[in-house]
Write a structure and sequence with these properties.
- Chain A is of the alpha/beta class and 229 residues long.
- Chain A is 36% helix and 25% strand.
- Chain A has a domain of 119 residues: P-loop containing nucleotide triphosphate hydrolases (Rossmann fold), CATH 3.40.50.300.
- Chain A is globular.
- Chain B has a domain of 182 residues: MetI-like fold (Orthogonal Bundle).
- Chain C has two domains: 216 residues, MetI-like fold (Orthogonal Bundle), CATH 1.10.3720.10; 239 residues, 3-Layer(aba) Sandwich (Rossmann fold).
- Helices cover 51% and strands 11% of the residues of chain C.
- Chain C is built from 21 helices and 14 strands.
- The chains are: A alpha/beta (229), B mainly alpha (310), C alpha/beta (617).
- At the B-C interface, α1, α6, α7, α9 and α10 of B face α1, α4, α7, α9 and α11 of C.
- Chain A: It comes from Sinosporangium album.
- Chain A: This is Peptide/nickel transport system ATP-binding protein.
């Protein structure tokens, strides 16, 4: 998949300014930036949730799925977990229950959760349900927008591990968006740094983190808090 | 910038209102003149009246004539009493406005402190008794219409106790019951809003910080809390005033108050269309002006709301 | 239903509505005959035993007429509400269906009409459709439509912008299915609740129209018409008007209270507040001497709520001058409640107890109220998470700083403002004279957090409590604020309690780390030892699960299975045992916080052996 010359304007404000970015098949591209950098707008535009100019090519737009930041807002409170996961399924009714079970175990959730309501689940569990729902549509691209920033650290690790194992198992392409450089570095093959609507640096994760070319990337790296000061 | 946009919206609404009041006469099924004068009126008289009012002209010509008339301060002539409608309005409008304005001021002065007090007292679910008492009393008070308050007040304080005159406008004392009837419902409504706002503001971080600074209660409530609850209260206050103007219709009727509302009810009952049309136009205009003033005032008082609007 | 009957207003509302509906159902059948019986001899009577509410001009019994007229009254109210609901929902849904421009026009029209009093709209319709029940019902229905339209619009707009609807769109769920499965169920309830109250309002409005003679016309009658008839005799026989008036009031109040109680019963139970100032300071339970020279010395701090929720359990903490102590834990660990308790900001039902709690050597529980206020107001500064919410939007920034000096130091206004400007300069806010006169909304997030810190410097702070002060900020701004905090505490020689969920941030800023789990301290150690010297399994897991710039990307991140027990159900034993790989039978007994050396304390039965291993290995 490739994004070419994407620009998003809200009135006179340019949120995304001529962004070109490739997501190679089977790889995770991490998009990092501070608030107002336009990273989340790129996610929404790729999914067709906001209008943009430019092109998104190399994949069927109907096979893009998204996982959102707030696990408390991304599930309909009046639908069971099973019903939510079933939304994107195109399998015959008879096989639906089995498919829901398969998806829930894919995200390491007990299959018994299918009959529960979102309010009975923890934040980490809800985020897994949202991922299972997206996987049900067999996406060729999964867009993950700040999916761990509302979670506690001990839970975040498990969700990040899940993302990496899914890529390995399903050969999934992913656009992974986060403000946390350490998180982006850990899951991504390619890291893209955004600032004020523009991409300032793109490259293999270790390269961007190890020898940043752009001043802003360097500034961002220096600001990341490190254990032991 | 906001003021200009708001002013344009006001003018558009005013234009719509004028056209609507014009259209009202034409939407009446059948011949309004025939309806007003009765089935037995001689056909010549009906024809004469129609011609007087220009009702036989094409609609655009009539609308233009209507607007010209309004611009020159003319509102037509009553079918029944033959008085110029402009004069009726000049005579009666001040009585209505006095009632509505006094009731609004009274309601706000009572309701805002009452609501704040209830909010402070019931913060974090303390004093459950106060909370239950406050919400049920105000919930019930909101549901009772003005005209029933006025009937109740008349029965108790005018008929039974004889403390106040039961009807008419005669001296300061005659204002007491009408104002009370108009204000009780709004007091309950505004007090509830003020309480909810107070509770919301009390849970904000800036109040937490103000408390961490150990400010004395008076400073905390009057300087930090009051200005922030005022915005919402003022918005409600605007709605309140326009609601009061409508409520005054019924209260004027009960107290035979020589205001516009009383006259409007009479004119609708007697099918005196020019009077009804003009009074509805005036009421609508007042509503638009009040809303405009409240919005401009809010924009001035609360810089954030302008930004939100933009 | 049970929720409904929990409040007196719900019970009253339900009872009044039930009575009204029963009268409406059976009224005409039982009293219809009597209500129509003309008796010229008994015309215009006042209240009597035979006719409790008197008779009308044809000698008909008014009580019977009130009871029989209920059906028509309620029916008209239902009809008007139905018209309003139908029209309103249609208008509310239209903008979503129509092309953009037409939709906006509808929205604009609805917004303009909402501002118009319903009665005025109803009169307008009444003029056109002539006198009578038909015109009045239509008028009231139309008059209610805009507010219902607006409600529908607001509700569906908020649901339509929810993430789960966006997700459904991406899953290519058909439009009608999104409407029926996602939007309708989530807006239906509030709309139906609103219609209950609207029923009351239309009943009252309809009665008003009839009372003015503009509604129901004889020989038909509803309560409003009966009131109209009785009103002319009010000075002679008040009872003839009071009967129908009471009927209208009862029905109006009933529907309104019921609607409100219904709304309350479905609304989620409010989450317990966290902000108010608790009345009493720490109450001494068992005394032990405070640590000499400490700015803050707390022993056995416990915060409990009446329903058994105990977010903080026997916490002890000492902060020396110039020392920055980091308090780390995940959400629900009790770290923020600890900050509130130390700051004296625990909400009303919460009870704070402590062996001792002293600030700058002064035991807070023994100070008089006035002295305590002054000490806390000038010697302690607090900074909270959300800089957007921490400053009062209605007041100028300078004024909010200056008031500390005005209130606690008795300074005059110019002196207080001068100090405020000076403090703003100290936290590196450029052009502080101009900034002081601005309102908070003119400040950026980082700038506001600086202003809040400056506010803490207005007194002579000995202790700075910062509760997640950088969590809402970008990393580059976070870095600046951390630097400022370090600078400020060094300059003032103040101690600081820095609360964060991010152990990496804590390790950058602090001298000492205190790790909290389920309301208790599980480990306390110098930051320098954090990476290699941590010995509590929870601390170690927390450190391991945090990815940093050196984490091996080929290995899975550590994560902790299960979840932290909620503050209501922390058991007797070690709270971490159920998630701990090292847990043994011994862990059913709670390990005490044991001090291994001056700076290192751990609450774990297995830490001792691990310590030994470290020493040998």
């Amino acid at each position: 998949m490739i994004i070419e010359g994407m620009t998003v304007r809200f009135g006179t404000f340019t949120a995304v300014d001529d962004v070109t970015l490739e997501v190679p098949p089977g790889s995770i591209v991490g998009l990092v930036g501070e608030s107002g950098s336009g990273k989340s707008t790129v996610a929404k535009a790729v999914c067709g949730l906001v209008p943009y100019t430019g092109r998104v090519e190399g994949l069927d737009p109907r096979r893009i799925q998204m996982v959102f930041q707030d696990p408390y807002a991304s599930l309909n409170p009046r639908m069971t977990v099973g019903a939510s996961v079933a939304e994107g399924l195109s399998v015959p009714k008879a096989r639906r229950a089995a498919e829901i079970e398969r998806l829930l175990s894919l995200v390491s959730l007990p299959t018994g959760l299918a009959g529960r309501y979102p309010r009975e689940l923890s934040g980490g569990q809800r985020q897994r349900v949202a991922i299972a729902r997206a996987l049900g549509a067999e996406p060729s691209l999964l867009v993950a927008d700040e999916i761990t920033s509302a979670l506690d650290v001990s839970v975040q690790g498990a969700v990040l591990n899940l993302i990496r194992s899914l890529r390995a198992e399903l050969n999934l392409s992913m656009l992974f968006i986060s403000h946390n450089l350490a998180v982006v570095r850990y899951v991504s093959d390619v890291v893209a740094v955004m600032r004020k609507g523009r991409l300032v640096e793109v490259g293999p994760a270790e390269e961007v983190v190890g020898s940043p070319k752009h001043d802003y990337t360097r500034e961002l790296l220096e600001a990341v808090p490190r254990l032991g000061g | 910038m906001f003021a200009v946009r708001r002013l344009i919206r006001f003018l558009v609404s005013l234009a719509v209102l004028v056209v609507a009041s014009f259209a009202m006469i034409h939407l009446i099924p059948g011949d309004p003149i025939r309806a007003a004068l009765g089935m037995n009126a001689p056909p010549e008289l009906v024809a004469q009246r129609r011609a007087d009012l220009g009702l036989d002209d094409p609609i655009p010509t009539q609308l233009l004539a209507y607007i010209k008339q309004l611009l020159s301060g003319e509102f037509g002539t009553s079918f029944i009493s033959r008085e110029p409608v402009g004069q009726i309005i000049v005579d009666r409008l001040p009585n209505t406005l006095a009632l509505a304005a006094l009731a609004t001021v009274f309601a706000l002065l009572v309701a805002v402190p009452l609501g704040m007090w209830a909010g402070i007292r019931t913060e974090n679910g303390r004093n459950r008794g106060t909370e239950i008492g406050f919400t049920s009393t105000t919930g019930a008070a909101v549901a009772v219409p003005e005209f029933l308050y006025s009937i109740g007040l008349v029965v108790v304080f005018a008929v039974t106790l004889g403390w106040f005159p039961p009807a008419g406008r005669d001296g300061v004392i005659s204002y007491v019951l009408p104002i009370l009837s108009l204000a009780i419902g709004p007091i309950a409504m505004v007090a509830r809003v003020a309480r909810v706002e107070t509770l919301r503001e009390l849970s904000t971080d800036y109040i937490r910080l103000a408390r961490a600074k150990r400010l004395p209660a008076s400073r905390l409530y009057f300087r930090h809390l009051l200005p922030n609850t005022l915005t919402a209260t003022l918005t409600i206050g605007g709605l309140l005033l326009t609601g009061l103007i409508a409520g005054s219709l019924l209260v004027e009727y009960v107290f035979a108050w020589p205001g516009l509302g009383m006259r409007m009810v009479e004119s609708i009952t007697m099918k005196d269309y020019p009077v009804a049309q003009a009074i509805i136009l005036v009421y609508g205009g007042i509503v638009l002006v009040v809303n405009l003033v409240v919005d401009l005032l809010l924009a001035k008082l609360d810089p954030k709301s302008t930004i939100k609007e933009a | 239903m049970r929720h409904l009957l929990r409040t007196p207003s719900g019970v009253i509302g339900l009872a009044l509505v039930a009575v009204t509906l029963v009268i409406a159902a059976v009224g005409p059948a039982i009293w219809g005959q009597e209500a129509e019986t003309v008796n010229a001899a008994a015309a215009l009577q006042g209240s009597s035993a035979e006719h409790p509410l008197g008779t009308d001009h044809l000698g008909r019994d008014i009580l019977a007429r009130v009871l029989a007229g209920g059906q028509f009254t309620v029916a008209l109210a239902f009809l008007a509400t139905a018209i309003g609901a139908g029209l309103g929902t249609l208008l509310g849904v239209l903008p979503a269906v129509l092309p953009r421009r037409a939709g906006r026009l509808v929205t604009g029209a609805v917004n303009a009409l909402v501002a118009f009093p319903a009665l005025l709209l109803a009169m307008f319709t009444a003029v056109i459709s002539g006198l009578g029940a038909k015109g009045a019902v239509l008028g009231i229905g139309i008059a209610f439509a805009p507010s219902i339209a607006r409600l529908t619009q607001t509700l569906s707009a908020s649901v339509a912008s929810a993430d789960y609807v966006a997700a459904a769109r991406l899953l290519r769920v058909p439009r009608w299915r999104i409407a029926t499965r996602h939007v309708l169920p989530n807006i239906g309830e509030p709309i139906i609740l609103n219609l209950t109250a609207a029923l009351g309002s239309s009943l009252v409005a309809m009665s008003g129209m009839s009372f003015l003679g503009l509604g129901v016309q004889p020989p038909s009658y509803d309560w409003g018409r009966l009131l109209f008839d009785g009103f002319s005799r009010i000075y002679v026989d008040p009872m003839v008007a009071i009967g129908p008036a009471i009927a209208i009031v009862a029905a109006g109040i009933g529907f309104n209270l019921l609607g409100e109680a219904l709304a309350r019963s479905v609304a989620r139970a409010p989450v317990g507040g966290k902000q108010a100032v608790g009345k009493g300071a720490a109450m001494p339970s068992s005394g032990e001497e405070p640590v000499e020279g400490a700015v803050l010395s707390v022993k056995d701090l416990t915060v409990t709520f009446p329903d058994g929720v105990t977010p903080v359990r026997g916490l002890s903490l000492t902060i020396m001058p110039g020392e920055i102590v980091g308090l780390v834990g995940e959400s629900g660990s009790g770290k923020s409640m600890t900050a509130n308790a130390v700051g004296g900001l625990v909400a009303y039902p919460g009870v704070v107890t402590a062996g001792h709690m002293s600030l700058c050597g002064e035991e807070l529980s023994t100070l008089s109220e006035a002295k305590r206020r002054k000490l806390l107001g000038t010697s302690m500064a607090m900074v909270f998470q959300d800089p957007m919410a921490s400053l009062n939007p209605a007041l100028k920034v300078g004024g909010q700083l200056a008031e500390v000096s005005l209130v606690h130091q008795g300074a005059k206004r110019p002196a207080a403002w001068a100090r405020a400007i000076d403090r703003l300069r100290q936290v590196h806010i450029p052009d502080p004279e101009k900034r002081a006169r601005q309102h908070p909304h003119e400040f950026s997030g980082g700038m506001r957090q600086r202003a809040v810190i400056a506010m803490g410097l207005m007194g002579t702070p000995r202790l700075l409590i910062a509760d997640e002060p950088t969590t809402a900020l970008d990393v580059t701004v976070q870095r600046q604020i951390l630097k400022l905090l370090r600078e400020v505490s060094a300059e003032a020689g103040a101690g600081a309690l820095f609360i964060s969920h991010d152990i990496a941030v804590v390790s950058e800023l602090c001298d000492r780390v205190v790790v909290m789990y389920a309301g208790r301290v599980v480990e306390e150690l110098p930051v320098a030892d954090l990476v290699d010297g941590a010995s509590h399994p929870y601390t170690k897991a927390l450190l391991a699960s945090l990815p940093d710039m050196e984490t091996d990307r080929d290995k899975p991140l550590a994560s902790i299975p299960g979840h932290q027990p909620s503050p209501a159900d922390v058991g007797e034993g070690c709270a971490f045992a159920s998630r701990c790989a090292l847990a043994t039978d011994r862990c059913v007994e709670r390990p005490p916080l044991t001090r291994y050396d001056a700076a290192h304390a751990v609450a774990c039965w297995h830490a001792e052996t691990r310590k030994a291993e470290v020493a040998i290995g």
